[in-house]
Amino acid sequence: MHYRNLVEFFSTKDIRKDETNLRIYLPLAWASGKLDVEETKQLIRRDLFDSVWQKISIYLAHCTTYRASTLTEWPVDEMYKELNKTLAQFEKVMHLDRINGAAFLVLSA
What we know:
Number of helices: 5
Distance between the termini: 30 Å
Helix content: 40-55%
Order of helices and strands: HHHHHEE
Largest sheet: 2 strands, antiparallel
Number of strands: 2
């Protein structure tokens, strides 16, 4: 999964006109109604979106003149650390368990 896509998923960015983009605040679209909407709203990270999404779009996601003319440094470790906090919370909300580093949904009887 691309970093930019995850940042967008955890944001409040408007969905596309064709309504195909998934968002954390609309769990009925992707979690079959098994999640508490209020619980998922706590995972919204508008701050991450505001701080990196536009910059990533300009410099990395699209071939633009900005990419060719401007040297940009990316604080990758910090970016990962910030997103990882949210991913860890997401795993708890989704009741995911880790086995050998991979996340799995835990189904209860």
